[in-house]
Amino acid sequence: MEKLELLYEGKAKKIYRTNKKEQFLVEYKDDATAFNGEKKGTIVGKGALNNQMSAIFFQMLSEKGVENHFVERISPIEQIVQKVKIIPLEVVVRNIAAGSLAKRLGLAEGTALRHPVVEFYYKDDELGDPLINDSHISVLQLATPEQLQQMELVSLKVNEILSEYLLTRKVLLVDFKLEFGLTEDGKLLLADEISPDTCRFWDADSKEKLDKDRFRRDLGHVEEAYQEMLKRLGGEVLV
Ligand code: C5P
């Protein structure tokens, strides 16, 4: 596998072209941002930790029948993924009120939700990634109704699989964000990453935060929280 030119640099990852037409190389960075890029910092070792955690989650999901873009982890901070065109929507699934939902609905953080809540956000930095509904998505032609329905179904299945697994590791899956993409022949695939950058993980007993909220809210021990999550997933912390 040859790493060719940089195609895209995001806040937490870089995407490179490879000599294989159907595959991209993803490099996970230590850079961390929050509040739509207003807060910037570094979480030492995050790239390697998230590369490993995303690989673990994507592999687990593949085994449970959730097709996704992950192909292979090839170095501490790099993985090969199937090439897709990302749909500019973030699908957020929530089990417990936290973050923007707690604020929007006036719920105390930690309130258990009667059933999972699925939300769509429009991936647009200039607009600040607004919450949008089916009607907005249709008018902006971001996805077809069928794609939207499939994204929602897959997201709820991911929620079931990961919530159940994480509980065995004494972790509550509070909420998470997924992204989907389309392959050249139009197939919808789960893509991007699944890591403490994109999920809220709480220790099941103490409710201690084991995710990026430690960075967002200046709670300290950010690196330790990411390392702790990897350990709970059975990964090896290479520090
Ligand atoms: O901030 P909010 O409560 O809406 O975030 C919900 C979930 O989506 C959290 O797990 C957060 O980490 C994730 N998220 C994300 N990328 C964003 C916004 C939210 O990964 N741009």
From TrEMBL:
<comment type="pathway">
    <text>Purine metabolism; IMP biosynthesis via de novo pathway; 5-amino-1-(5-phospho-D-ribosyl)imidazole-4-carboxamide from 5-amino-1-(5-phospho-D-ribosyl)imidazole-4-carboxylate: step 1/2.</text>
</comment>
<dbReference type="InterPro" id="IPR050089">
    <property type="entry name" value="SAICAR_synthetase"/>
</dbReference>
<keyword id="KW-0436">Ligase</keyword>
<dbReference type="InterPro" id="IPR001636">
    <property type="entry name" value="SAICAR_synth"/>
</dbReference>
<keyword id="KW-0658">Purine biosynthesis</keyword>
<dbReference type="GO" id="GO:0009236">
    <property type="term" value="P:cobalamin biosynthetic process"/>
</dbReference>
<feature type="domain" description="SAICAR synthetase/ADE2 N-terminal">
    <location>
        <begin position="6"/>
        <end position="232"/>
    </location>
</feature>
<protein>
    <recommendedName>
        <fullName>Phosphoribosylaminoimidazole-succinocarboxamide synthase</fullName>
        <ecNumber>6.3.2.6</ecNumber>
    </recommendedName>
</protein>
<keyword id="KW-0547">Nucleotide-binding</keyword>
<dbReference type="GO" id="GO:0004639">
    <property type="term" value="F:phosphoribosylaminoimidazolesuccinocarboxamide synthase activity"/>
</dbReference>
<comment type="similarity">
    <text>Belongs to the SAICAR synthetase family.</text>
</comment>
<dbReference type="InterPro" id="IPR033934">
    <property type="entry name" value="SAICAR_synt_PurC"/>
</dbReference>
<keyword id="KW-0067">ATP-binding</keyword>
<dbReference type="InterPro" id="IPR018236">
    <property type="entry name" value="SAICAR_synthetase_CS"/>
</dbReference>
<dbReference type="Pfam" id="PF01259">
    <property type="entry name" value="SAICAR_synt"/>
</dbReference>
<dbReference type="InterPro" id="IPR028923">
    <property type="entry name" value="SAICAR_synt/ADE2_N"/>
</dbReference>
<dbReference type="GO" id="GO:0006189">
    <property type="term" value="P:'de novo' IMP biosynthetic process"/>
</dbReference>
<dbReference type="GO" id="GO:0005524">
    <property type="term" value="F:ATP binding"/>
</dbReference>
